[in-house]
Write a structure and sequence with these properties.
heterodimer; A: mainly alpha; B: alpha/beta; five-stranded parallel β-sheet; 5 helices; 5 strands
């Protein structure tokens, strides 16, 4: 049965119009969410020179591991010095110097861990910058200055991923 | 060619701790004349005012990297023959190949020990 009441007809038309408007608003919000997801997904791809978030976690894990190893070497060498017994002063000196060399070598962890932490900080800074762009609250496009060999600057490799000294020696011999 | 332990050595690294480590390791190996620079630019300035027997340089430094320093040294008529060892955490194949092609004499990956440093210095001077 067709509704012929003019008031009801007008009300129905108004509801239909509101539905269409609401659908348009919701579609707009859905579009905004989709583009926001795309923007967030592109953060890692466009942040040249940085690493992705899972890799940042691996870098920090490597820092913890290397710090622990260095502490172990330093403490072991220190204990060896404290417990050092030698027949002559010369032997004593040689033994202590050997242990001190191990301490020097172990202290190089500061350089490597520093580079790893720098990578993580650069990643966080890049993410912060891109999020600022996405929300338009901070549209600054601050990228670090690049140097001619920027493509070769990767920092320390994760354990088991880079070349070791033996591999490098081989390359040095074979590359002309 | 025997290694001359009296030769001046220039250590280039932006990490003060690493410079101290290399300086101390060199001292233990008998090298006492060690200068230092914090990046490639400072190293070049020092190399132009003093003749060094060996340069030991990190790669990742600003504003001038060790790789750029190496290319500058090899392209300089007066400095071009200075022995150059790269000591770096950069351990990718492309890094080693690029450094070798740019004229590096040896390449040490960090972390390293005194024995490695000694063997690479010996190798550079043909011992």
């Amino acid at each position: 049965m067709t509704n012929t009441n003019p008031k009801e007809t007008a009300l129905g038309a108004r509801v239909a119009r509101m539905e269409a408007e609401l659908r348009g608003v919701l579609e707009g919000i859905a579009g905004d969410i989709a583009s926001l997801k795309t923007e967030i997904a592109s953060i890692e791809q466009t942040s040249t020179g940085t690493i992705d978030i899972p890799e940042a976690g691996n870098e920090l894990a490597a820092v913890v591991e290397m710090t622990e190893q260095a502490s172990h070497v330093i403490m072991t060498a220190s204990e060896a010095i404290l417990g050092c017994e030698a027949d002559t002063l010369e032997d004593y000196r040689a033994a202590v110097e050997g242990e001190v060399m191990k301490i020097f070598e172990a202290c190089s962890f500061q350089d490597i861990t520093g580079q790893r932490i720098t990578k993580v900080v650069e990643t966080l800074t890049a993410i912060e910058s891109r999020l600022g762009e996405v929300t338009s609250e901070d549209a600054s496009d601050a990228h670090p200055p690049s140097c001619p060999d920027a493509h070769l600057l990767n920092g320390p490799a994760l354990p088991g991923k880079g070349l070791d000294q033996g591999d490098i020696d081989l390359l040095m011999t074979n590359v002309s | 060619m025997a290694v001359d332990q009296t030769m001046p050595i220039l250590v280039v690294d932006d990490y003060k701790t690493m410079i101290r480590i290399i300086r101390n390791l060199l001292k233990q190996l008998g090298f006492n004349d060690v200068d230092e620079a914090a990046d490639g630019t400072e190293a070049l300035q020092k190399m132009r005012s003093r003749k060094y027997g060996l340069v030991i340089s990190d790669w990742n430094m600003e504003p001038m990297t060790g790789y750029e320093l190496l290319k500058n040294v090899r392209g300089d008529e007066k400095l071009g023959r200075t022995p150059f060892i790269m000591v770096t955490a950069e351990s990718k194949t492309e890094n080693v190949i690029a450094a070798k092609k740019a004229g590096v004499n040896n390449y040490i990956v960090k972390p390293f020990n005194a024995a490695t440093l000694k063997s690479k210095i010996d190798a550079v001077f043909g011992e």
